[in-house]
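in:
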């Protein structure tokens, strides 16, 4: 089959593209100008240069494809111009899916995020039905992604099927930017993360997320959401795993949330407002991290057959990729032994 992948030059989009090629499919990659060099050289890839809000380039990209993976989005917790985040994440989603529907495409998969789910409360796991309202969500990234989901699902029907995936926190090879989750690994490797807040997240592997997207396309029920994740870990637990993987005896100290917010506010003022560059500690990212987002991935495992490799393996693959590609001079140990594996981790 021939598929359109938007955001094919990105972390998740690139993994989906590689998975499609491995499975014998062909790909039309819609990428922004200047990102073409991140697309693998392959005779089964056609590159269309343009943006997701540019109707003409989208029309060209959807022509002749049988399915769409809409992955492109602004994934950042700092926004020089918040309106651009909504324009890309919301308007871009509507443009891509509407044009796909007009072109006769049968099915599309939207890459959303677990960040659109409502925090279920302490000691509870979020599931696909834990839908947040806009008022529940802090920051432009989360709100824009929820609005994109709502727009996409409104187009489901009349011969056009939409399936939504909600990846958790993907780690693994190919995180060239890197993403906010990849920075956790990179900053640990490079001794740049002295403190952490008491939070947690669900760790998954980017290649498992890619596999989950294909499974969602071929097996997912239209109009449904599927959480793509693996293992719930505290942030301290992630650092403990990284210590075991790398042998770096780093023990970042826990920072009270109020103190972290105060430091983040100062950093955002200096870096964001005055210097007009991304803050080291974005306030929106801290608000997102206020509550651990632990999830239950049973629906995707049972209905789709989602693979869920252990978090340690995904973190190792991420660390190895950063070292191999010159982001860090740290060493990655050959064994999987851990000194202080987080006892509070929960297998989802």
């Amino acid at each position: 089959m021939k598929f359109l992948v938007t955001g094919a030059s990105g972390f998740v989009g690139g993994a989906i593209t590689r998975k499609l090629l491995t499975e014998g499919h062909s790909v039309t990659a819609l990428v922004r100008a200047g990102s073409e060099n991140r697309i693998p050289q392959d005779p089964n890839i056609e590159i269309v240069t343009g943006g997701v809000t540019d109707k003409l380039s989208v029309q060209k990209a959807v022509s002749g494809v049988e399915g769409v993976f809409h992955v492109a989005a602004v994934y950042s917790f700092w926004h020089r111009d918040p309106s651009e985040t909504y324009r890309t994440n919301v308007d871009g989603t509507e443009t891509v899916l509407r044009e796909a529907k007009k072109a006769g495409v049968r099915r599309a998969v939207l890459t959303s995020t677990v960040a659109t789910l409502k925090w279920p409360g302490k000691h509870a796991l979020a599931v696909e039905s834990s839908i947040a309202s806009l008022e529940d969500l802090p920051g432009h990234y989360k709100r824009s992604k929820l609005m994109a989901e709502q727009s996409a699902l409104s187009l489901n029907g009349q011969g056009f099927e939409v399936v939504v995936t909600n990846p958790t926190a993907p780690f693994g090879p190919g995180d060239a930017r890197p993403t906010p989750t990849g920075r956790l690994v990179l900053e640990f490797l490079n001794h740049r993360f002295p403190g952490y807040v008491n939070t947690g997240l669900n760790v998954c592997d980017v290649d498992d997320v890619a596999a989950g997207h294909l499974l969602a396309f071929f097996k997912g029920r239209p109009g449904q959401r599927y959480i793509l994740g693996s293992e719930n870990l505290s942030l301290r637990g992630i650092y403990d795993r990284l210590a075991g993987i790398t042998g770096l005896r780093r023990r970042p100290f826990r920072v009270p949330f109020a103190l972290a917010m105060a430091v983040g506010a100062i950093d955002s003022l200096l870096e964001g407002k005055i210097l007009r560059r991304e803050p080291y500690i974005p306030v929106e990212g801290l608000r997102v991290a206020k509550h651990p987002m632990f999830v239950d991935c049973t629906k995707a495992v049972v209905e789709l057959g989602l693979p869920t490799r252990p978090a340690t393996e995904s973190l190792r693959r991420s660390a190895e990729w950063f070292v191999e590609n010159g982001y860090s001079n740290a060493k990655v140990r050959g064994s999987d032994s851990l000194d202080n594996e987080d006892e509070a981790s929960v297998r989802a």
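note: The mean pLDDT is 85.
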